[in-house]
Amino acid sequence: MAVDSPTGRRTQQERRERTESALITAAAELVVETGLRSLTLARVGERAGYSRGIVNHHFGSKQALVEALAHATQTGFVPGIDRIAPGLERLLAVVERYIGALGGVTVINRAFLLLWAEAATAPELTEIFRDRDEGFRTRLRADVEAAIAEGSVRPDTDPGDVAIAIMGQLRGIGLQRLLDPDAIDTERLRHVVAAQWRRALTMSD
């Protein structure tokens, strides 16, 4: 006699996760192609090869879908950073790897940059991306503080100012890359920008 085993339940969960991943990818593609305003559950379902009912079943509303997309786009942009100890080298690795990642940006990462830019005028995104940005700045500040403590960065450096400046620079480069990919040589630029920050943080006035 067949038994409804834990393995069966895991298979059902895997199917659900695959469906949600396909819907998120479809939503990201549509955001990149036509923007957030034109995103609908029906269009997402059609792009992913499912019915609108499936999209409703998984997310319930456009707002829930947008929130899921926003959270999905915010993961994994700069992998491997957590394996580096906090301090100057990790800070510079974030700068270098972030710009390097822009050279092979995926549809999910493109959607992230577009949604981030749109968050300034889209209330459904503002809080999500405000929290994300604060988390990014917090990690950057922590690296600057650790670098000051270890003596590799000038003690008169303001960690908060550096965090704001680095995040603004990285996001700005990302948006330029979206607008004019051929104008941004990410392989060269990632080394240039990291070297500039090393000099700025370690040189005396």
UniProtKB/TrEMBL annotation:
TM stretches of this protein: none
Keyword Repressor: yes
InterPro entries xrefs: BetI_C, Homeodomain-like_sf, HTH-type_TetR-like_transc_reg, HTH_TetR, Tet_transcr_reg_TetR-rel_C_sf
HTH tetR-type domain boundaries: 17-77
SUPFAM superfamilies to which the protein is assigned, alphabetical: Homeodomain-like, Tetracyclin repressor-like, C-terminal domain
DNA-binding region boundaries: 40-59
Entry annotated with the keyword Amino-acid biosynthesis: no
Highest taxon above the source species: Bacteria
Gene Ontology MF annotations: DNA-binding transcription factor activity; transcription cis-regulatory region binding
Keywords annotated in UniProt: DNA-binding, Repressor, Transcription, Transcription regulation
Name used for this protein in its record: TetR family transcriptional regulator
Organism per entry: Umezawaea endophytica
Lineage: Bacteria, Bacillati, Actinomycetota, Actinomycetes, Pseudonocardiales
